[in-house]
Amino acid sequence: MPAATLPPATWLGPVTLRIADEQLIRLFYHGVLRYDLRVRSDGCLAALPPGSTVPHFLFEWSPTAPPRPANAPGLYHTAIVLPHRAELARVLAQLVERRWPLAGASDHGVSEALYLADPEGNGLELYVDRPRERWPRASRDALAMVTEPLDVRDLLRELERHPGLWTRMPAEARVGHVHLQVSSLHLAERFYVELLGFEVTQRSYPGALFVSVGGYHHHLGFNVWHSRRADPAPPGSRGLARFALVVPERPAWEAALERLERAGRPVERGLRGEFGDGARTRDYDEIEVELWTPA
User: What would the CATH number be for the domain defined by 11-293?
Assistant: First the structure.
């Protein structure tokens, strides 16, 4: 348990990806996943659910950026949580119709999930949560998430009960969690739990660690399955540039920044943006994190 925890209402803001082929990214995120795409004043391309003002993704175009080494720390996947099980069935039917390859389909006990990658290999999870009272637990304070095959036939029966096509990313969808591959689970826990203020929800999954705020199953996941003791990715590599956290209470935001500074982590203050006042820091794998709080 960290000395101080983030407020339960802390949430994940946009995930920023550095990309080389903007046309392919547009075709996938708009043409397949049905996001609205808008160019922002800072030059980034934003992917938003129609009807929402909060981007899920920001894209920085860098055509000469080198690919991230496969074993380097960075993004494992960005997970978008959908509001209803019928939406998960609809997006599955959409992916099949578009012949977009799936990397997996899993039942985690707490959720049902589809896995895929965008045209540049950035991992994606699309999922729907089960009610909290049904989440499997190892103890009162620890979850027992699993990875079992998803019952795809049962999922597709939702289309019989709730007919409809996948025409847009639902406005209620949000970034549910970000999963990183890291060089060390110990260092990940040191940074994200002891310094930032997340709480561990499960450490029994082999080679992985899951943390959250407010009792959620996980807002962040970490694994060392392919990246144990690996060096940071070369600066400017394609893939994850940074991800954002929005801390709704300024004193908690200030306290987190002070903990980071005392521990010797870099903190760049003075950002201004749509979420208020911001700062940037880097974890022990040089993965950049933005921390925002309302102005």
Answer: 3.10.180.10
- Tell whether the model's pLDDT for residue 253 goes beyond 50: yes
Q: At 80, list the tokens.
A: 């978008």
- Cβ(115)–Cβ(92) under 8 Å? no
Summarize pLDDT for 28-71 with one digit per residue, the tens: 999 999 999 999 999 999 999 999 999 999 999 999 999 999 99
Find the angle CA(265)-CA(234)-CA(115) to the nearest 5 degrees: 95
Q: Are 240 and 16 in contact (CB under 8 A)?
A: yes
Answer whether residue 2 shows pLDDT above 80.
Answer: no
The SS3 of residue 88 is helix
What pLDDT score was predicted for residue 3? 59
**Longest Cα pair distance anywhere in the chain, in angstroms?**
56
CA 249 to chain CA centroid, nearest Å: 21
Which of 235, 255, 258, 239 has its CA nearest to residue 247?
Answer: 255
DSSP states of 190-203: IIIIIII--EEEE-
Q: What is the mean predicted confidence (pLDDT) over 89-113?
A: 98
Residues 125-144 have a mean pLDDT of 95
Query: CA-CA distances (angstroms) from residue 5 to 60, 215, 219, 255?
Result: 32, 12, 14, 10
